[in-house]
Amino acid sequence: MIVVGGEALIDLVPVARPPGALLPRPGGGPYNTALALGRLGAEVAFCSRVSTDAFGETLLSGLRAAGVDLSLVQRGPEPTTLAVPSLAADGSAAYEFYTEGTADRLFALPDRLPGRARALALGTCSLVLEPGASAYEALLRRESARGLLTLLDPNIRPALIPDARAYRSRFRSWLPYVSVLKLSEEDAEWLGGRPEDWLAAGASAVVLTHGAAGLTVRTRAGGEHSVPGVQVRVADTIGAGDTVNAALLHRLSEPDGSVDWPAALSYAARAAALTCTRAGAEPPHAAEL
Questions:
Q1: Are residues 78 and 101 in contact, defined by beta-carbon separation less than 8 angstroms?
Q2: What are phi and psi of 38, to 5 degrees?
Q3: How far apart, in whole angstroms, are the C-alpha atoms of residue 2 and residue 249?
Q4: Which residue from 23, 24, 208, 281 could staple onto 32, CB 3.0 to 4.6 Å apart?
């Protein structure tokens, strides 16, 4: 089982007609990652705190439809977090967030994960917004020590980070507990480091996404592999990086521990490309790959 921890929120996605209209779509980096894993056929559980409001019910309904285990989901009466993406001409998205008093930031550390869990993925807003951020950090440290493969996707949202210097320091403190650090070129630039720095700080592998240009991985063992992107007509890039997370976890968390990085990267590139052909975060199903 792969456990994905972090926020579930509603993206208010701009649509062409009527002008200025916003379409509510399920989202949040961890939510999208869990959804993508379910669609790819992985055994996956979502670990979060979700509102009991109508948006929360919609979010959980989407995960159920993808076969995601919800036994680790906590519930609360607080509202669902909202994100408003603005789309550039190339389909890339920037976000504004409405997080005050929302349910997902009140996540509490669970006593344990299922015994069959073999991987844990964390990232995005959940590692910024307190008090939940400290609970997710404790989960990362505990489960890494227990031997789980861990994937961290910082998925930087500068609007949510009041003290960039403090966040960068905290980010480095996580790296000894990270098996796979996945981040975009934009994330890397904001964090102000290089893959070799993050490997030296403790991460076992660093995967960099380069948008349409593809993906690259560097490992602490000295390996480096790159694959090109898959050229498609882009509707938007919402959820593409989250699909990369899911595809990598699906391929890297095999019980025998084998790692075929070129195959895993190629699979992730194909899956992310399909997501980019659809409006909003709509990762592909296994049959499409």
A1: yes
A2: -60, -45
A3: 8
A4: 281
CA–CA distance, 176 with 57 (Å, rounded to integer): 36
One-letter-per-residue 3-state SS of 47-67:
ECEEECCHHHHHHHHHHHHCC
Cα 234 vs. chain centroid, distance in angstroms? 20
The pair of structure tokens assigned to 186 is 């934009």
The length of the chain in residues reads: 289
For residue 151, the tally of other CB atoms under 10 A from its CB is: 26
Half-sphere exposure of residue 118: CA atoms within 13 angstroms, side-chain side = 13
Q: What share of the chain is helix, strand, coil (3-state, %, to 5)?
A: 40, 25, 40
Closest-CA residue to 29 (of 283, 284, 289): 283
Per-residue model confidence as pLDDT tens for the chain (289 residues): 999 999 999 988 777 778 778 889 899 999 999 999 999 999 999 999 999 999 999 999 999 999 999 999 999 999 999 988 776 666 566 778 999 999 999 999 999 999 999 999 999 999 999 999 999 999 999 999 999 999 999 999 998 999 999 999 999 999 999 999 999 999 999 999 899 999 999 999 999 999 989 999 999 988 899 999 989 998 878 889 999 999 999 999 877 667 899 999 999 999 999 999 987 788 999 999 8
CA gap 71, 235 in Å, rounded: 34
Query: In terms of DSSP bridges, do strands 215-219 and 205-209 run parallel, antiparallel, or are they unpaired?
Result: antiparallel
Tokens of 145: 């020590």
